[in-house]
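Fold this sequence, please.
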Amino acid sequence: MATVMIRDETATGRAIDRWPLAGMPERMSARELVRLRVREEVARFNASQAEHFRGLVQPTDAEATLNGYRTARGRRLDWERQADAACAAFARNGFVLLVGDHQVEDLDEEIDLRSDPELAFVRLVPLVGG
């Protein structure tokens, strides 16, 4: 089993969040990795019942803020819905996944987590008006 370090960044390289994810298989597809990451972050949010969700993608009916996405107090998120939204966001270039210094191009790409335990999710912001 592998432990990986998940890191969220802006397009300029500014760190947003960072946390370890333990008990990972040694190899998995990028799709499985994204879904596992989202399942973990939704589980942490649902357990804490915080007002702000600091996840990879914005939940439906949530407001984007500087601290993440503001949700209704006590709202529970569906991890599968969030994971599907994250996979769709990857497909439309909503974020980039970097494994070590390699950019993942396809969600079906297999990743060796033993050799590249640093995973960066770089959030891309769409241009306004263009």
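The chain has a mean pLDDT of 90. DSSP finds two helices and ten strands in the chain.
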